[in-house]
Amino acid sequence: METIYLYHEQQAQNTTYPEMVLALGYFDGVHRGHQKVIQTARDIAEKQGKALGVMTFHPHPKAVLSPAISENDMRYITPLPEKEEQLKQEKADYLFIVHFDKTFASLYPQEFVDQYIIGLHAVHVVAGFDFSYGKLGRGTMETLPFHSRNTFEQTTVGKVTDHDQKISSTRVKHHIQMGEIQTVNRLLGRLYRVKGMIVKGEQRGRTIGFPTANVKMTDSYLLPAVGVYAVQIHIAGTWYNGVCNVGYKPTFHDDKTAEPVIEVHIFDFAGNVYGEKVTVVWHDYIRGEKKFASADELVKQIELDKQTAARILSSAESK
User: Fold this and answer.
1) First to last CA, the chain
2) How far apart are CA 75 and CA 63, in angstroms?
């Protein structure tokens, strides 16, 4: 897959791209609904013998159009590097990442179609039923045939549901924030994951017999709710089982830090891994974080959490 960044001030018709089927969407999460859009585009491309392109946008429109929100405030199911990696799994030939800024947001629907669809040699466009484009989102899948200037065809993918509810990025985010990881994984069609780096923490876990790896996220992932989870962690080419606490360690601290801390107690592992890049995949929620009366009570609970996590992971699906 070739990734191309498109900036409006540099955007011009490019005659080097082959004719392609183009899937459009923001695609945060690349969940099962998004996968249906891309799969539909891929099927059409294969049938027609055309290239497959996927177009997404960055940063999020809220970070550009809302005066109260900046890109630093945004949290994603799939931050841009993660989104690119997930879209690569969808076997596109081209990934177009359009820089979303106020100039781009001010384009009229016809301008967007002319420059970013017709200009890329799209012969067929696929998007979800609720996709919109152009200034104030005035362009829709219903207006797209008019704006196409008879140069491409289109397919609209209907609502993809789970338990009679639409699968959407908003819904996935809600379940992440509620700690409902099994539901998140079902909606994504894969295990939710975050990437980060192991950094030095307070090293308190060593003193109570449960050393932990402190994971600092390297991108703006949306963290699951505060609590304890069964997880797996990928370190230096190997997957390990573990139990993870997301929170503020109230047994030892009265005040909360600005951001919750991710601590993973890794089963059957010993070694110095500071500075290692890691991936944490989330299998299931175990319990909420709580303040214990003593370190001894905390140790007893961690042992129970470890046993619970081991049971969950013993029957878990593969990563």
Assistant:
1) 23
2) 11
Mean pLDDT by 10 residues, the chain (319 residues): 86 73 97 98 98 96 86 93 96 95 94 94 96 93 96 97 96 98 98 95 61 91 96 94 87 67 90 90 94 80 94 75
Looking at residue 256, its pLDDT comes to 65
Tokens, residue 199? 């950094």
pLDDT for res 169: 97
Residue 318: per-residue pLDDT: 46
2-160 CATH pick, 3.30.70.420, 3.30.930.10, 3.10.20.30, 3.40.50.620: 3.40.50.620
Q: Which run of H or E residues covers position 127?
A: strand 122-128
Q: Identify the three-state secondary structure at position 214.
A: strand
d(CA 121, CA 15): 8
The answer to whether 59 and 35 are in contact (CB under 8 A) is no
pLDDT at 211: 80
5: left (phi over 0), alpha (psi -120 to 50) or beta: beta
**What would the 3-class secondary structure string for 47-108 be?**
HHCCEEEEEEEECCHHHHHCCCCCHHHCCECCCHHHHHHHHHCCCCCEEEEEECCHHHHCCC
How many Å apart are CA 95 and CA 147, to the nearest integer? 23
Superfamily of domain 191-314: Riboflavin kinase-like (2.40.30.30)
Say if residue 1 is exposed, middle or buried (CB neighbours under 10 Å; 0-12, 13-18, 19+): middle
**How large is the angle between the packed helices 181-188 and 169-177, nearest 10 degrees?**
160
**Nearest to residue 305, comparing CAs of 194, 205, 237, 185?**
205
pLDDT, position 271: 78
